[in-house]
Write a structure and sequence with these properties.
- The chain contains nine helices and five strands, in the order βαβαααβαβαααβα.
- With 189 residues, the chain is α/β, with parallel strands linked by helices.
- Strands 2-3-1-4-5 form a five-stranded parallel sheet, sandwiched between helices.
- The structure holds BIS(adenosine)-5'-tetraphosphate (B4P).
- The site of BIS(adenosine)-5'-tetraphosphate has 30 residues, from helix 1, helix 2, helix 3, helix 6 and helix 9.
- The site of BIS(adenosine)-5'-tetraphosphate (B4P) has 30 residues, from helix 1, helix 2, helix 3, helix 6 and helix 9.
C-alpha cells in the first residue's frame, strides 16, 4: 500500500497534481475539499454545517472532517493506497491519520509539500474564479485561506519532519514539470 499526503497552501496545485498521481500510481484520490463540496451541494447535515466554514475560508472542525474521512476510506477497502489531498490540515488531524493508518497496518510514506509564493497563489485562485464559481475563490476569502494555512496548517510539516517524511517540491512551473518533480520523490520508495 502506498499512502501519500499532498500538502501546500490553497492554490499550490494539490488537486491538480493529485488527480494525475492517482491515475499513474492507481491510488484512491481523497480530496476532503471535494467531499465537503459534494456534501454542501447535496444539502446533507454535514454539508450545511461545513458551508459556514468553507465560504469564510475557515477550517471545518476536526471531528467532522475526521469522521467524514473514515467514512470515505471504509467505502474503499480494496484501494491500493490513498492520495490525501487537503488532509491533514491541522496537527490534530495528522495525529488522527497516523493512528488510524497504524491500526490498519500501514502509514504515510511521503508528505509532499508544494511550495508556491503567495502572489502566484492569489493569481491562480483569482484565475480559477473566472472559470468556476467557487464561493471561496474571492480575494477576501483567498487571503483568509492563506492566513489560516500559515497559522493552523503549516505546523503539520513540523509534525511529519520528525518521521523524516517531508519532501518540499518547487510548485512553480508547468503542471507536467511539477508532476515530474513529485514522481522523482515517489520513485525513491
Ligand atoms: P480545498 O478544496 O482543499 O481547496 P484548496 O486548498 O484551494 O486547493 P485546490 O486543490 O482546490 O487548488 P489547487 O491548489 O489544485 O479546500 C477548500 C476548503 O474546504 C478549505 O478552505 C476548508 O474550508 C475546507 N477543508 C478542506 N479540507 C479540510 C480539512 N482537512 N479540514 C478542515 N477543513 C477542510 O489549484 C488551484 C488553481 O491553480 C487551479 O485553478 C489550477 O488549475 C491552478 N494550477 C494548478 N497547478 C498549476 C501550475 N503548475 N501552474 C499554474 N496554475 C496551476
Amino acid at each position: 500500500m502506498l499512502n501519500i499526503v499532498l500538502f501546500g497552501p490553497p492554490g499550490a496545485g494539490k488537486g491538480t497534481q493529485a488527480k494525475i498521481l492517482a491515475d499513474r500510481y492507481h491510488l484512491y484520490h481523497l480530496s476532503t475539499g471535494d467531499v465537503l463540496r459534494s456534501e454542501m451541494s447535496a444539502g446533507t447535515p454535514l454539508g450545511k454545517k461545513a458551508r459556514g466554514y468553507v465560504e469564510k475560508g475557515e477550517l471545518v472542525p476536526d471531528e467532522d472532517v475526521t469522521e467524514m474521512l473514515v467514512c470515505v476510506m471504509d467505502k474503499h477497502p480494496d484501494a491500493g493506497g490513498f492520495i490525501f489531498d487537503g488532509f491533514p490540515r491541522t496537527t490534530q488531524q495528522a495525529k488522527f491519520l497516523r493512528k488510524m493508518l497504524l491500526e490498519k497496518g500501514t502509514e504515510i510514506h511521503d508528505l509532499i509539500v508544494l511550495d508556491v509564493e503567495e502572489k502566484e497563489l492569489v493569481r491562480r485562485l483569482l484565475n480559477r474564479a473566472k472559470l468556476e464559481s467557487r464561493a471561496d475563490d474571492t480575494r477576501e476569502v483567498i487571503e483568509n485561506r492563506i492566513r489560516v494555512y500559515k497559522e493552523q496548517t503549516a505546523p503539520v510539516i513540523d509534525y511529519y519532519s520528525q518521521f523524516g517524511k517531508y519532501h518540499p517540491i518547487n510548485g512553480i512551473g508547468t503542471v507536467e514539470e511539477v508532476h515530474n518533480r513529485i514522481a522523482a520523490v515517489i520513485s525513491q520508495q
